[in-house]
Design goal:
The complex is a heterotrimer.
Chain A (H helix, E strand, L loop, with lengths): L3 E12 L6 E12 L3 E6 L5 H9 L7 E8 L2 E2 L5 H11 E4 L13 H11 L5 H14 L5 H6 L7 H13 L5 E5 L7 H18 L2 E6 L2 H7 L2 E6 L2 E7 L3 H4 L3 H10 L16 E13 L5 E14 L4 E5 L6 H8 L7 E6 L2 E2 L6 H9 L2 E4 L13 H12 L5 H14 L16 H13 L5 E5 L7 H18 L2 E6 L2 H7 L2 E6 L2 E7 H6 L4 H9 L36
Parallel strand pairs in A: 3-8, 3-9, 6-7, 7-8, 13-18, 13-19, 16-17, 17-18
Antiparallel strand pairs in A: 1-2, 1-4, 4-5, 9-10, 11-12, 11-14, 14-15, 19-20
Helix pairs in contact in A: 3-4, 4-6, 6-7, 13-14, 13-15, 15-16
Chain B lengths: L2 H31 L4 H6 L6 H10 L6 H14 L12 H36 L2 H14 L4 H15 L12 H35 L2 H8 L4 H26 L1 H12 L4 H10 L3 H29 L11
Helix pairs in contact in B: 1-4, 1-13, 5-6, 5-8, 5-11, 6-8, 7-8, 7-11, 8-10, 8-11, 9-10, 10-13, 11-12, 12-13
Chain C lengths: L2 H5 L15 H23 L31 H37 L1 H16 L2 H12 L4 H27 L2 H9 L3 H37 L11 H7 L1 H5 L4 H29 L4
Helix pairs in contact in C: 2-3, 2-11, 3-4, 3-6, 3-8, 4-6, 5-6, 6-8, 8-9, 8-11, 9-11
Classes of the chains: A alpha/beta, B mainly alpha, C mainly alpha.
Chain lengths: 564, 319, 287
């Protein structure tokens, strides 16, 4: 009996392809010992999620799994279906990326929590309910009785994720499979959830396979790290010494992407700003949960300046109003109060007519977050860029248009050979370059980037940010970067504005704000970012009940047929 | 169900009532848009004298302004006076009263067949593996190409002429005899709907089988049968219900075809005859009746869905 | 999660069972082609005058002189079926074209303008939807008399809601995508956005619905003719033939009803198969 609680031995996963099987995972090899936390890190397409799903038995029937998967030393391919289901139910807990999708919207939280206890462990409904409430308290959910009766729609993403974690604990599994569990959460909520997990692991001696694309996060919360690329485990490292021990070039690239970039020198002399936002206010009419209408203040009294050729980052979590501000500047939303002045001209009200929009287009352009939907999938790259160029050069000949298109492709370092492809055959990074090229077609002076790199892999992010920086230096375009990710802003921007709930909390140069923050919120944001030596801390004051340790858990779940 | 859901539901029902009202106006205006003067249709083959014309106009309110005519018509509907047939010169209410029962029975019979075989085959297709799924797929493909009148003549040929197992004409008398007579007509109506509902059901269930919340339940080891009942089927039911509701509501109208083919004296055959003879009042009343049934059925479906999934009444959030 | 989601974007094509070279789809397409040919050239292909009475014995079974036998008035069924293809097949085409054109226009306007325009058209659509197509057709016949014109007009109106709702949903989804916002910021004219980007995006579901809708229209019109309210004798519209052949069924001569019925079924079956294929193609666009 090995002391590996989970082992993947040269696991491969193939999907049926149009011309023969498609290898999605070629060789995944890792081991998790009891009580240890192994981080499985990789970018999209690395195969990390698929490998975890193979362990949990969640791959479609058509997929073939090669190699060996061992749970508690037992090769699961030799275990008959029914017993395997039992093993998975009792030995594995799995938590997914989007808790809202993974909970039945029609059933209450209480139903969800007690279901496994009643049907699998044979508990009586009252006992199951009591245990469920205990578990909810353990993960720090306030007022657990009330929550039991609510439905998923009534809870926030962070709370739902904790509910999912609580549910996996019901069977006291020795290993937790965590698939990108904090990726969809704000960074402060992420810290909360990771703190809960850290507590749980300590008290329950829980092993964990922690899947993430965030190497810094894994490095901070895991004991060891396995790096995957293109379906292979490339390297396995001890987290504490990963920077020194890493040998593989891919791992080193990932590591360098997590480092803060050099702090930029503040050398801008005072110049007439190209964009001035003053006292901006925007409210939305939304339906309140109780029916009827409610006013939601998205942006309240926001003001800042952008120097020509400068780079300003607007940072905030979800609901901070940063995106709304960007949309108002570009004319996609109308402000209720305040002013937007661009090059001395008042842009507060929307441009009138196509001619008006065209004029403004030559000054400010926008790049969006989703690279897949930012381009018309029916157009080739060339057609898309040609259209953008032709708007401002109506009398140009075909040849002149194409020349400009080639120029733009060069500016974003995109191979001209890709010009005749459609977006579907381009990678996320390439599509985003096309989006940038399209924005540059109008020769703008301001480029607004609305979470433009958030949907990209970390290594691609670095490439695009480097590209944007060079565009700024060579073309003198001012950059306005909206992001929830401070690391990104740090890489690209001179100045930063921190927003929260529609208000500016702090603003200044990068050096000032990020190295010596004055506002509590900024400090909290900075502390929540995983870095070397980071320990997640719970910020919500302690729960009313103390954390139970394994020894004092009163309802011990015994599987029917006697303890294992 | 909390007050928000209740309020939204009432809002929806109010909307349905408005739709019903507007539909009634539309149906009523059919009379006005008919080319030619209805006086002559009423008079029939006799060339009317001026006294006759005046009498007809007074009797049928044809000399009143339009909105008064509408109000007296609608008022009549509520008070039981459904107008007078142009052709038979008898109150419409008397014409339709004896026929409602038999049409209702036919529709109910058909409904039972649709639910049992449509829903049933859809569930089987989704849960019993590839072979069953393909079989149902092929069968429903055929079924969707078999309209009522085709199935009717097929059944008449096979069961009427060749085998002689079922009667092929009329509705019989007495409940059991009615059911015996209505079997072939009900089948002829049901085939197309069974195929359609089967597909919808299968699609909705398969859609839920791949849902992420089902994955969660699977990993936790919850027994398959329970997952099917409380996660797959429950979550698929709003979709199945809403589509089925809309489809079945049209059943009442389509029953006219079966009634024609099998010589059943129901509402549908009256509708057909009346249309053929341009007996507008009769057509109007029956149309209004069918539309009301449609709206009521949809309202019922909306309420049931709201009970199952209160969040469905939540409107889409403003972007 | 779906197979495609799991394989994650990198995969260009997974094994699909429905490919363009599916023999069933090809067969269906050929059948449709044949039906179309018959609809156009039927009169030329008919060996006998379809309206000529007593060209053969009454209600005779299929033979070498009369491939499908003769009907109750001694007319050659084969010739009547060939000539009847035109009204049976062309009338639904009109319904589809009219309802699609109007429905798409309403759907796109609703999505584009939103607000009051959307509100009013949605209500109008709902009212039309509340009246079953058959009822609308019967109403139309009671107003304008028997024949195919009234039912065609009525069904065209009755089918509008299905198309407009579909188009509205698709158009709204497309308009919500960031590339539309990007085009606006670029300064591209609204007209260009609508016709160069929105309409091509919305076309696949429209085509899919048109194909499927043709089948429904054909069935509905044949049913109306069967009821005696649509095409009228001596027309050999298939619905009329099926109805006229009903008495002969019970006396042992099913040909008059069965052959046109078989043709209706075969045509609709072919349309459904093609429709399913077009729908799969239309849905396979994203990513």
């Amino acid at each position: 009996m090995s002391d590996f609680v989970l082992e993947l031995d040269h696991v491969s996963i193939a999907a049926p392809g149009a011309d023969g099987p498609l290898m999605l995972v070629e060789d995944c090899t890792l081991q998790v010992t009891a009580g240890e936390s192994l981080g499985l890190v990789g970018e999209s397409g690395s195969g990390k999620t698929l490998s975890a799903r193979a362990v949990a038995g969640l791959l479609p029937e058509e997929f073939t799994v090669g190699g060996t998967i061992r749970i508690d030393g037992e090769d699961i391919s030799t275990v008959p279906g029914k017993r395997l289901r039992g093993i998975r139910a009792r030995r594995l807990g799995m938590v997914f990326q989007t808790p809202r999708a993974h909970l039945n919207p029609l059933r209450s939280i209480g139903d969800f929590m007690t279901e496994a206890l009643v049907t699998v462990a044979g508990e009586k409904p009252d006992a199951a309910e009591r245990r469920a409430i205990e578990l909810l308290a353990e993960v720090g959910i306030p007022d657990p009785d009330r929550r039991m009766r609510q439905r998923p729609g009534d809870l926030s993403g962070g709370l739902l994720q904790r509910v999912m974690i609580a549910a996996t604990l019901a069977m006291d599994p020795p290993i937790l499979l965590a698939d990108e569990i904090t990726t969809a959460l704000d960074v402060t909520t992420q810290e909360e959830v990771m703190a809960v997990i850290a507590d749980l692991r300590r008290h329950r001696d829980l092993a964990m396979l922690f899947i993430t694309h965030d190497l810094a996060l894994a490095g901070a919360v895991c004991d060891r790290i396995a790096v995957m690329q293109h379906g292979r485990t490339v390297e396995t490292l001890r987290a504490a010494t990963m920077r020194q021990d890493a040998v593989e070039p891919y791992t080193r690239r990932l590591l360098s992407a997590t480092l803060p970039a050099d702090v930029r020198a503040d050398s801008t002399p005072p110049v007439e700003p190209v964009l001035v936002v003053d006292g901006l206010r925007k409210t939305f009419q939304v339906r309140s949960p109780r029916g009827g209408r409610e006013e939601f203040v998205a942006v309240d009294g926001v003001g800042f300046r952008l120097a020509p050729g400068g780079s300003l980052g607007i940072v905030g979590e979800s609901g901070s109003g940063k995106s709304t501000t960007a949309r108002i500047i570009c004319g996609l939303e109308a402000a209720d109060a305040g002013s937007v002045t661009v090059k001395g001209e008042d842009w507060t009200t929307a441009a009138r007519g196509t001619a008006g929009r065209r004029r403004r287009a030559r000054i400010a352009q926008m790049v969006f977050q989703d690279p897949y939907q930012s381009l018309d999938r029916r157009q080739t790259v060339r057609a898309c860029l040609r259209e953008a160029v032709a708007v401002h050069r109506p009398k140009a000949s075909r040849g002149e248009l194409d020349a400009r298109v080639d120029e733009l492709l060069g500016a974003v370092r995109l191979d001209a050979g890709l010009a005749d492809r459609k977006p579907r055959s381009l990678s996320g990074g390439q599509r985003q370059r096309v989006a940038i090229a399209r924005a540059l077609a109008a020769d703008p002076e301001i480029l607004v980037l609305d979470e433009a790199v958030s949907a990209l892999d970390v290594t691609t992010q670095v490439e695009i940010l480097t590209l944007l920086d060079s565009i700024r230096r060579t073309m003198g375009v001012a950059l306005l970067m909206i992001s929830h990710d401070l690391t990104v802003v740090r890489r690209l921007c001179d100045h930063v504005v921190v927003m929260r709930s529609g208000v500016i909390v702090e603003q200044g140069t990068i050096a000032d704000v990020l190295d010596d923050p004055r506002a509590d919120y900024t400090r909290m944001l900075l502390d929540s970012i995983p870095h070397d030596g980071w320990v997640p801390r719970r910020r919500i004051p302690a729960r009313t009940t103390a954390l139970p340790t394994v020894a004092t858990t009163t309802t011990r779940i015994s599987p029917p047929g006697g303890p294992k | 169900m909390n007050t928000r859901v209740l309020r939204q539901l009432l809002g929806k029902l109010g909307g349905l009532l408005l739709t019903l009202f507007l539909a009634s106006v539309l149906i009523f205006s059919a009379m006005l848009l008919t080319p030619g003067d209805p006086v002559f249709t009423i008079a029939g083959s006799v060339r009317p004298t001026p006294e006759m014309i005046a009498a007809i106009q007074e009797q049928y309110h044809l000399d009143q302004p339009v909105w008064v005519q509408y109000l007296s018509w609608i008022g009549g509907v509520f008070s039981g006076d459904l107008g007078t047939s142009f052709v038979y010169k008898t109150p419409v209410a008397e014409l339709i009263a004896p026929r409602i029962g038999i049409t209702a029975l036919l529709v109910l019979y058909t409904l039972v067949l649709i639910v049992v075989f449509g829903l049933g085959s859809g569930i089987l297709a989704a849960t019993r593996g590839r072979a069953v799924d393909r079989t149902v797929l092929v069968t429903t493909s055929f079924g969707m190409a078999l309209p009522t009148f085709v199935v009717a003549i097929l059944l008449i040929w096979i069961f009427g002429r060749v085998l002689g197992w079922f009667p092929v004409y009329g509705a019989g008398s007495g409940l059991l005899d009615n059911l015996y007579h209505l079997t072939l007509p009900a089948i002829s109506l049901a085939v197309l709907y069974i195929a359609y509902i089967s597909r919808i059901t299968r699609g909705a269930i398969v859609g839920q089988q791949h849902a992420e919340h089902v994955e969660t339940a699977l990993v936790r080891g919850i027994p398959r049968s329970r997952i099917f009942r409380r996660h797959v089927f429950l979550n698929a039911s709003p979709q199945i219900l809403s589509v089925s509701g809309a489809t079945v509501a049209g059943l009442f109208a389509v029953s006219a075809i079966a009634e024609q083919a099998f010589g059943i004296g129901g509402l549908g055959s009256l509708l057909t005859e009346a249309a053929a003879r341009k007996d507008v009042p009769v057509v109007q009343v029956i149309s209004l009746l069918l539309v009301t049934v449609f709206v009521v059925l949809n309202a019922v479906v909306d309420v049931v869905i709201a009970v199952i999934d209160p969040d469905s009444t939540k409107p889409r959030s403003l972007a | 999660m779906s197979v495609a989601q799991l394989a994650g974007g990198r995969v260009p094509r997974l094994a699909r069972r429905a490919s363009a070279r599916d023999p069933l789809v090809i067969a269906a397409a050929l059948v449709m082609l044949l039906i179309a040919v018959i609809a156009v050239f039927g009169p030329l292909m008919a060996p006998y005058d379809p309206n000529q009475l007593y060209v053969g014995p009454v209600l005779s079974p299929p033979s070498l002189e009369h491939y499908m036998g003769t009907d109750d008035l001694g007319r050659d069924i084969y010739s009547r079926v060939l000539v009847g293809a035109a009204p049976s097949v062309i009338a639904p085409v009109f319904v589809v074209i009219l309802s699609t054109a109007l429905g798409a226009a309403i759907g796109i306007s609703s999505a584009w303008f939103g607000g009051v325009v959307d509100g009013i058209s949605s209500r109008v659509i709902e009212v039309i939807f509340a009246i079953p197509g058959l009822v609308l057709a019967v109403l139309a016949v009671s107003m304008f008399g028997k024949g195919l014109i009234a039912p065609i007009a009525a069904l065209s109106i009755a089918y509008i809601p299905i198309v407009s709702r579909l188009v509205r949903t698709a158009a709204r989804a497309e308009l919500g995508k960031p590339y539309i916002a990007a085009l606006r910021i670029q300064g591209v004219s609204s007209l260009a956005i609508c016709f160069r980007h929105l309409v091509p995006a919305v076309l696949p579901p429209i085509l899919a619905q048109s194909t499927v809708g043709f089948g429904y229209a054909m069935l509905d019109l044949a049913a109306i003719s069967f009821l005696g309210l649509g095409a009228q004798p001596p027309s050999s519209d298939w619905g009329v033939m099926i109805s006229a052949g009903q008495p002969a069924l019970l006396t042992g001569a099913p040909e008059q009803s069965m052959f046109p019925a078989a043709l209706v079924v075969v045509t609709v079956l072919a349309v459904n198969i093609l429709g399913a294929r077009v729908t799969t193609w239309a849905e396979g666009g994203d990513r």
